[in-house]
Amino acid sequence: MDLGLKNKLALVTAATKGLGRGCAEALAREGCRVAICARTTGDVQRVAGEIAAATGSEVRGYTADMAKPGDIDSLLVAVKAQLGNPDILVTNAGGPPPGKYADVKLEQYPQALELTLLSAVRLVAGVTEAMKAQGWGRILMITSIAVKQPIDTLLLSNVARSGLTGFMKTIATELAPFGITVNAVLPGLHATDRMQQLAKNQAQQKGTTPETALAEMAKTIPAGRLGTAGDFGAVVAFLASQQAGFVTGSNILVDGGAYKGLI
Ligand code: NAP
């Protein structure tokens, strides 16, 4: 199916690895020009080259830390100057540190909100005027299954992503008349670097191996396996498509059936 995305400009943040990279690759494969960012300059340049070589699309890499408002401003200025106004925005950032209520210090809350909630708000603020003017735009926010089913050990993530979900739903209503859709995409368990790290931690605690910890995680998923970055990117590319123009204000799970609630 042609998703109608040829030559659209997509900005995907936190995209040298994992889910962000999966989204950047899927959009580049559909013919989008893509801007990616992350904090590690060497990775950003290398990955931009790899995705461009694999897809034949133009891909540019920028160094930016989503926890730093100044970096987000500079990223937006550079992308607009070099590539133009993004037609598609995929917001992503590394997750806040794990911890239960008893472990989390008060000063960690504003940091988590800056990284996970306000970075997305700043990025959206930087792209919506041009999207409104052209009467078309796609905004996708990577959140988590935790907004439907909070994860006990990820208090900061649960709090910040729930706030982002409220932002997503509210602006979706306001931006729909301008041809802009706004949706959140909720990963379950995907085999990324972050998940490998989590498996290592679990293995240490349980006295087992990371491979066993990953296999145990996979058993909790009805599909019988962890997701891949490709599984996730494909759904994001579809939500960015012309065909998905009537989908807005939605929370779309990509979790192999892991979520146990009804709606
Ligand atoms: P990952 O494999 O560790 O990749 C993270 C990517 O983001 C890397 O490119 C990293 O590059 C970049 N990054 C990290 N912190 C950043 C920051 N402050 N500013 C800019 N770029 C940053 O992680 P992932 O598994 O794809 O997870 C992506 C997001 O989805 C996270 O928020 C995670 O909590 C959430 N999530 C993931 C899963 C899952 O199963 N994987 C499930 C639910 C939610 P640099 O380190 O060079 O910056």
Q: Within the CATH hierarchy, at the fold level, what is the topology of the largest domain?
A: Rossmann fold
Instruction: Output the helix-strand order.
Output: EHEHEHEHEHEHHHE
Q: Going across the major beta sheet, what is the strand order?
A: 3-2-1-4-5-6-7
Report the β-strand fraction as a percent range: 5-15%
Assembly state (oligomeric): single chain
General shape: globular
The CATH first-level class of the largest domain comes to Alpha Beta
Tell me the number of structural domains. 2
Bound molecules: NADP nicotinamide-adenine-dinucleotide phosphate
Poorly predicted ranges (pLDDT <50, ≥5 residues)? none
CATH superfamily of the largest domain: NAD(P)-binding Rossmann-like Domain
Computed CA radius of gyration, to the nearest angstrom: 18 Å
Structural class: alpha/beta
Question: What integer is the average pLDDT?
Answer: 97
Number of strands: 7
Main sheet: strands, sense, barrel: 7 strands, parallel
User: Span from first to last CA?
Assistant: 28 Å
At CATH's second level, what is the architecture of the largest domain?
3-Layer(aba) Sandwich
* Residues in helices, as a percent range: 40-55%
If helices are DSSP runs of H or I spanning 4 or more residues, what is the number of helices?
8
